[in-house]
Design brief:
The protein has three domains: about 120 residues, Nitrogenase molybdenum iron protein domain (Rossmann fold, 3-Layer(aba) Sandwich); about 120 residues, Nitrogenase molybdenum iron protein domain (Rossmann fold), CATH 3.40.50.1980; about 150 residues, Nitrogenase molybdenum iron protein domain (Rossmann fold, 3-Layer(aba) Sandwich). The chain has 17 helices and 13 strands. The strands form three sheets. A five-stranded parallel beta sheet has the order 11-10-9-12-13, with helices on both faces. Strands 2-1-3-4 form a four-stranded parallel beta sheet, sandwiched between helices. Strands 6-5-7-8 form a four-stranded parallel beta sheet, with helices on both faces. The relative contact order is 0.12. It binds iron/sulfur cluster. Iron/sulfur cluster binds next to helix 2.
């Protein structure tokens, strides 16, 4: 048992994180950048950072993730990385022909203090950026924030670099999906289409990180939001930002820059959060909800009603990214489950406030922590055992150690597939989550049943 030394006795720690429930900023920036069509992410730092970011994304999405690096050596660490980045920009455009290079920084280049906009201006002056091509950037010092912050920062940069208000409104709505799977992005587009609303989804990693096997390698897969679409976001009717932590920054920047009003919502995971998303999209676009969506909703409600007895009062521990946890907690409460331990590694007091509001009278004594770690989560579980654990792949050790049914959900999932192909957002995504929860709970019930009380029919 890998975690057999986890103690039950909890000591408050300030300067020590054990098994963090987050990863580093540039991973999020790289993921967001891959949601622009024809974009090559570029890591301004040393090679090891870039390899780590690429390999984490590749292991989760099971797709080769391409990215450039400024390949810092001792020299650049002392004198700065301007020469490396200038050379990289020239090489990338002449060899790999992207439409956009999306530069993010790393701990090292942030500590040196490299001024990326100044380096990009110099690249322009030197004729290294061909006409009609772009270099955008965001700052992602990993000693603050998390991968969610990096995602939010790169998404905001898309607005800062591209969005333009021409004064002529377009009959379209911007949707910022937050950090969700390519499958979720595809599902959000399907729901909007079903409602008859034209949306610009940015970033959009569907058809990039879930691209089909065609036998032909495409360096830039067909998916991703295009540059003209990004420019047009400044003329949209409104912006719907999904996930306060990952999407607020871009939505507010778009409002400030182009006067596009925004609605900040939770991720549409579960019944109520999906209702709010559908209702907001309906309202801002001035459309009616078609029967097909009402029927999808009805099917989710039907499963909840039929299976309520299996969800009731089951204790759940969950960990991961704040936007996912907020929506998931609300869904679990809808199911009459009891989320008793909730940890995110990402900073933000608003996380604890929002979760406490959701749990209010239902689970008033729940343990909730922002900037927490998985060691603390495990200790809480040892003090108050749970029926179910939900989180990314790293939860498997706690699950094994304490023999808890485990559902993989969030980022990263390194040891299973399915997450990038089957959505968990929307009403259909809700049914998938219910299926996973039921499978885990009932498998355990069957395993623990004796010969005389094992049930054939639920
Ligand atoms: S934490 Fe900093 S040094 Fe480590 S991989 Fe991330 S960017 Fe690189």
């Amino acid at each position: 048992m890998l975690l057999r030394h986890t103690t039950k006795e909890i000591k408050e720690r300030e300067a020590l994180t054990v098994n963090p429930a987050k990863t580093c900023q540039p991973i999020g920036a790289m993921y967001a950048a891959l949601g622009i069509h024809g974009c090559l992410p570029h890591s301004h730092g040393s090679q090891g950072c870039c390899s780590y970011h690429r390999s984490t994304l590749t292991r989760h999405y099971k797709e080769p993730v391409m990215a450039g690096t400024s390949s810092f050596t001792e020299g650049s660490s002392v004198f700065g990385g301007q020469a490396n980045l200038l050379e990289a920009i020239g090489n990338i455009f002449s060899i790999y022909h992207p439409d956009v290079i999306a530069v993010h920084t790393t701990c090292l280049s942030e500590t040196i203090g490299d001024d990326i906009p100044q380096i990009v201006s110099k690249a322009k002056e030197d004729g290294k950026i061909p006409a009609g091509k772009y270099v955008i950037h965001t700052n992602t010092p990993s000693y603050v924030g998390s991968h969610v912050t990096g995602f939010a920062n790169m998404t905001r940069s898309m607005v800062e670099y591209f969005s333009a208000n021409t004064g002529v409104k377009k009959n379209q709505v911007n949707v910022i999906p937050g950090w969700v799977e390519p499958s979720d992005m595809r599902e959000i587009k399907r729901l909007a289409k079903e409602l008859g609303v034209k949306i610009v989804l940015f970033p959009d990693t569907s058809d990039v990180l879930d691209a089909p096997q065609t036998g032909r390698h495409q360096f830039y897969p067909k998916g991703g939001v295009t540059i003209p679409e990004l420019i047009s976001t400044g003329d949209s009717l409104a912006t719907i930002a999904l996930g306060r932590f990952a999407s607020t920054s871009a939505a507010e920047a778009l409002d400030a820059k182009c006067k596009v009003p925004c609605e900040i919502l939770d991720l549409p995971i579960g019944l109520e959060a999906t209702d709010r998303f559908i209702d907001t999209l309906r309202t801002v676009a001035g459309v009616n909800v078609p029967d097909s969506i009402t029927e999808e909703r009805g099917r989710l409600v039907d499963v909840i009603t039929d299976m309520e007895q299996y969800f009731y009062n089951k204790k759940v521990a969950l960990f991961g990214d704040p936007d996912q946890l907020i929506a998931l907690t609300e869904f679990l409460v809808t199911l009459d489950m009891q989320p008793v331990h909730i940890v995110t590694g990402t900073q933000g007091k608003r996380f604890e406030e929002r979760i406490r509001k959701i749990l209010k009278s239902k689970v008033p004594n729940a343990n909730v922590r922002q900037s927490g770690d998985m060691f603390l989560l495990h200790q809480w579980i040892k003090n108050e055992p749970v029926d179910l654990l939900i989180g990314n792949t790293y939860g498997k050790y706690i699950s094994k150690d304490d023999d808890i049914p485990f559902i993989r959900f969030g980022f990263p999932i390194l040891d299973r597939v399915g997450h990038s192909y089957f959505p968990t957002v929307g009403y259909q995504g809700g049914i998938r989550l219910l299926e996973k929860i039921l499978d885990a709970v009932l498998e355990r019930q069957d395993r623990d049943a004796g010969d005389t009380n094992i049930e054939l029919v639920m």
